[in-house]
Amino acid sequence: DTGVSQNPRHKITKRGQNVTFRCDPISEHNRLYWYRQTLGQGPEFLTYFQNEAQLEKSRLLSDRFSAERPKGSFSTLEIQRTEQGDSAMYLCAGEAGQETQYFGPGTRLLVL
Amino acid sequence: GDSVTQMEGPVTLSEEAFLTINCTYTATGYPSLFWYVQYPGEGLQLLLKATKADDKGSNKGFEATYRKETTSFHLEKGSVQVSDSAVYFCALNSGYSTLTFGKGTMLLVSP
Questions:
Q1: Residue B62: which of B92, B43, B83 has the closest Cα?
Q2: How many other CB atoms sit within 10 Å of the CB of residue A74?
Q3: Which of A17, B8, B12, B99 is deepest in the core (most CB within 10 A)?
Q4: Are A99 and B43 inside 8 Å of each other by CB?
Q5: Is the model's pLDDT at A110 over the cut of 80?
Q6: Which residues of B touch A107 (CB under 8 A)?
């Protein structure tokens, strides 16, 4: 158990709807990362936070995606106007400053 | 840019067989290297890591040695078990914080 939790574990939505995922790292994780994993592929980086500051965003993160980490604790990832191509596993990882990222169980999104 | 190439799967073995999963990388500087394992329906678990050339990472009978001269980090295990069936990901961190992953290699172990 990495101590990183994600909710919900599964989400089914209709195209065009908005969805929000939550990630709760452990308190020592000053860095928090979001990745997206599609079937048969490795995870791809989306964005990361150092405490509450969002320091980097991938070009994969279109303007329909937004992430926050208020107070440097939990984080949310919102997708607006979902598209079928957004269907994927969304993974969150925490890091305590030693280059090792610890992943949560992921949220599997299906857009119908 | 950074990239990781893994051997394609699935790798199918009988229990107690020897395992090798090849991983090579391209990166600027001297990256840290990782192996993660993903069981069905779950997130990624760190299996082992190595942070500099010639380091050997090991955990649960798995080993991998950081070979700078061949830019490789092959995963090995002397005797696999059915419970080792999973997808294995090689990854690197070249100091820019984010991890770059390979596509993963599925391992299937039969009794």
A1: B83
A2: 16
A3: B99
A4: no
A5: yes
A6: none
Q: What is the DSSP letter of A9?
A: S
The H or E element that residue A73 is part of is none
* End-to-end Cα separation, chain A, in angstroms: 32
Amino acid at A25: P
- What CA–CA distance (Å, rounded) separates B66 from B29? 14
H-helix or E-strand spanning residue B27? none
Please check the confidence at residue A28 and state whether its pLDDT lies above 90: no
- The nearest CA of chain B is from the CA of A12 a distance in Å of 16
The owner of tokens 């942070």 is: B51
Q: Is the pLDDT of residue A40 over 90?
A: no
Q: Which residues pair with A87 in a beta bridge?
A: none
Instruction: Find, in chain B, the residue whose alpha carbon is nearest to that of A99.
Output: B97
| CB A4 within 8 Å of CB A24 | yes
CB–CB contact B46 A102 (8 Å): yes
The span from the CA of A8 to the CA of A18, in Å, is 14
Question: What is the model's pLDDT at position B82?
Answer: 96
Q: How far apart are the first and last CA of chain B?
A: 41
The owner of tokens 């069936």 is: B85
Helix (H, G, I), strand (E, B) or coil at A16: coil
Contact by Cβ (8 Å): A5, A105: yes
Over the stretch B51-108, which tens digit does the pLDDT of each residue have? Answer: 999 999 999 999 999 999 999 999 999 999 999 999 999 999 987 678 999 999 999 9
* Residue found under tokens 């991938």: A58
